[in-house]
Amino acid sequence: MSSDHIRNFCIIAHIDHGKSTLADRMLMGTGAMDQRTRQEQALDSMELERERGITIKSSAVSVEHVYNGKTYELNFIDTPGHVDFHYEVSRALAACEGAILVVDSTQGVEAQTVANLYKAVDADLELIPIINKIDLPSAEPERRALQVEEVLGLPAEDCIFTSAKTGQGVPELLDAICERFPPPKGKQDAKLQALIFDAKYDDYRGVIVYFRVMNGSMKKGDRVRMMGIKRTFYITELGKFRPQMQKIDEPFDAGDVGYMVAAIKTLDDVNIGDTITLDTDPADQPLPGYQEPQPMVFCDFYPSGNTQFDELREAIAKLHINDASFTFEPTSSEALGSGFRCGFLGMLHMDIIQERLERESNVELVQTAPTVTYEVQQRIKGGGTDVIHITNPADLPNPSNIIEIREPIVLAEIITPTDRIGDIMKLCEQRRGVYKSQKFLADDRQILEYELPLAEIIYDFFDKLKSITSGYGTMDYHVSEFRRDNLVKMDIMVNGSIVDALAVIVHREKAEFRGRHLLKKLKQEIDRHLFEIPLQAAIGGKIIARETIKSVGKNVTAKCYGGDVTRKRKLLEKQKAGKARMKKIASVDIPQKAFMAVLDTGEG
Questions:
Q1: How far is CA 562 from each of CA 565, 567, 568, 570, rounded to the nearest angstrom?
Q2: pLDDT greater than 50 at residue 62
């Protein structure tokens, strides 16, 4: 098909504004899916996505639509809406020329709507604003269209009113896509440059590469080279997503999107963002690719149960092919053995990766509490100083060498109902927030800007925000700087031994409160043993909080029926000596829930 009749675009929006349902309607409107084979959220192929009702992975699909008597190929990507998956959105935008911006007619412009718009504008994409869910009784499409113009700067008359549920407005949208979005800019006669935007591992076919041809042409049987790793492969199969994988024997030209099978067996042979070119006539330069994601939240995964370290390593490597936005490196712990230190874009991202590992690779994990990256300025030999980044409190250098610890500060944009502003401000102040500005959005909506420590919001801040605003508050944030504060490392000792996986970095003013609360949670989670277990929180050598798990009682004198009292005393002394010996040599079993107790800050 001529590149003039190809349209590459993606669907972006705030979470739960109807992107996936709109994608379903577009599949039905173009005949790619009929009423008989219809499935709700067809592009959300993961069981986890259906259970949670959210899009986790961007899904590409190719369909055909007839407009003004001409057949157009529409290649579109349904993207996630949650802030934790913004890397998926940025990758999708880099492979497109246009974007459909969906706005809920009952909710209006939300925090992630604004953030996604900025990403699309930065990528120089053509935009079509959609006012969705107009079939609902509380819908206000005209008002929301004016809000799109006032807040986002897109003309209200350009908005298309749709209902993804009933299909109203979808034919007009498909026509507008063909009319408004530009064709691909690539040259068919140039040297091959194809961008790898995704991949997945198949046990029988190896790594399946998802690509978009930017320049040139490729076909089955070509010998291609991955420019980043300088490895060559023979293409054994090319195909498109319609929406299932469908083999195509024709060449792929500039603007085409599809998948490639080339007997790639090694996971390290594919990098997301790499450039595919012909080995016989390679391109001079690779494509820019993607900016490396910056993990914000870190935690450790350790094998447990019947899972071995090598099994966990293979499972993480396979998943990394499909989701390049998390990082991993080997680590070890005295309490938990060998595992991996993983970095994620947010708490939901971390939760999803853990569940995918357990479900897709059938591994058993122990996960430590998440932390953020800190900058530490320390003294070094020779009288100088240097700055290191740590993601694990256990890696902090000797306190006598630390000059200062800096924590990541985020600029948060909170969109909230006007009558909840006071409660939101109180919540932000509790989390050491610094007020920046307040903007008017609509009669019932305002935007609050706060500077907040990332460590204070990754745990339960979003849940508190939703609770205070009855589900109507939304938030978007980005890291703005690292800032010095009075931060200290708090160690947790169980039975006299420091458990490095439970260590946390806290503000000194909150250390005692956090320590007492954490020990109370640990006391509830750790089972009672045959001996007494002391739990202690310490800063340096100073104990700031203590709790004790009482031992399981056993009446060793029950078998004594009368006789001299010394018989009972002898048994009790024997029991006491046995418990003391057991306390020295026995280990305390710490369950998974105990490691996650660190998440509960105890704050409102």
A1: 8, 9, 9, 14
A2: yes
* Distance in angstroms (rounded) separating the CA atoms of residues 56 and 50: 10
Q: What's 419's DSSP letter?
A: G
The domain segmentation of the chain, as residue ranges, is 3-180, 193-278, 297-367, 374-485, 488-599
The CA R_g of the chain, rounded to the nearest whole Å, is: 28
Return the exposure string of 534-558: e unless at least 16 CB atoms fall within 10 Å of the residue's CB, then b: ebbbbbeeeebbebebeeeeeeeee
Q: Which residue has the tokens 């577009």?
A: 26
Give the residue with greater pLDDT, 281 vs 553: 281
Say how far apart CA 164 and CA 41 lie, in whole Å.
11
Q: What does the pLDDT read at residue 501?
A: 76
Quote the CA–CA distance of 516 and 447 in Å, as a whole number: 36
Interval 545-550 mean pLDDT: 89
Q: Which residues contact 351 (CB under 8 A, 6 or more apart)?
A: none
Residue 150, judged by CB atoms within 10 A of its CB (0-12, 13-18, 19+), counts as middle
CB contact burial 118-138 (16+ within 10 A = b; e otherwise): ebbeebebebbbbbbbbeeee
Within a 10 A sphere around the Cβ of 1, how many other Cβ atoms? Answer: 13
Q: Two tokens at 315?
A: 């499972």
CATH of 3-180, one of 3.40.50.300, 3.90.550.10, 3.30.43.10, 3.40.50.620: 3.40.50.300
Name the CATH architecture for the domain at 488-599: 2-Layer Sandwich (3.30)
pTM of the model: 0.75
Edge-to-edge strand order for the sheet containing 245-247? Answer: 231-234, 223-226, 275-278, 193-202, 206-215, 257-261, 237-241, 245-247
d(CA 78, CA 125): 16
19-29 helix and 170-180 helix, angle to the nearest 10 degrees: 90
Residue 553: partners with Cβ closer than 8 Å, 6 or more residues away: none
